[in-house]
Amino acid sequence: MDNNKKILVLGVGNILLHDEGVGVKAVAKLDSEYDFSDNVQLFDGGTLGLRLLDPISEADHLIVVDCVRYGHPPGTLYRFSIEDFERRENFKNSLHQLDLVETLAFAEIIGNRPTTVVVGIEPENILPWGMELTEVVQARLSDMCAQVLEEVAAAGGSFRPKIEASTEHPSERIV
Questions:
Q1: What is the rounded CA–CA span in Å between residue 133 and residue 22?
Q2: What percent of the chain has pLDDT over 70?
Q3: Predicted model pTM
C-alpha cells in the first residue's frame, strides 16, 4: 500500500435537489462512519466547479462521487474513468461533469491531473426542491459508499470503522 499517494474523495452535488446531492451525502456518511489513513482526504465539493482546482490538482488520485444520469433504472451504480466521459459524445449526464472535465483539463495545464474515477448512481428525482434522497437512492447509499471504499483501497488508502462512543450514561459509570 502506497500511503504517499494523496487520495481525494470528492462528493459533488446540490443537496437541495433530492438525489442530486447524493455525492455530498455519501462523503458525509463515509466521514461519520470511517477513519481514513492520512493520505485520504474527504471533501464536500458541493457545486463549486472550477473552484475545486486547488484540491484536485494537489491529489494523485481523485474519486468523484456523484449522481449520473445514464438511462438505467434509478439506484443503478456506475464506475467510470474520466476518460470514459471525455470519449462520450453526450457526456453531460450529471450537472457537474462538464465542470469536472474542464477542471481536470486546467489541472493538467498546471502540471497535475490526478488519476480519476467517478462512482455514480442513477437518480430518481433531482427536481424540484427537497433535501431528502428518494427511497431507491437512499437504499443504495451504503452500496455506493462500499464502492468508494474499494476505490480508496485500490488507490493505496486505508480505512477502518470508527469506534462508537460509549452508550452508557455518565451517571451509570462505576468509579
A1: 7
A2: 82
A3: 0.84
Rounded Cα gap, residues 175 and 171, in angstroms: 10
Domains (ranges, CATH) in the chain? 7-172 (3.40.50.1450)
Q: How many CA atoms lie within 13 A of 74 on its CB side?
A: 15
DSSP symbol at 175: -
pLDDT (tens digit, 9 = 90+) per residue, 131-162? Answer: 999 999 999 999 999 999 999 999 999 999 99
Using DSSP, state whether 4 is helix, strand or coil.
Answer: coil
Instruction: Look at residues 47, 50, 51 and name the one whose alpha carbon lies nearest to residue 11.
Output: 47
Residue 44 · residue 9 · CB < 8 Å: no
Helix (H, G, I), strand (E, B) or coil at 128: coil
Which has the closest alpha carbon to 23: 148, 139, 152? 148
Q: How is the chain split among helix, strand and coil, in percent rounded to 5?
A: 40, 25, 40
Across the strands, what pairs with 115? 61
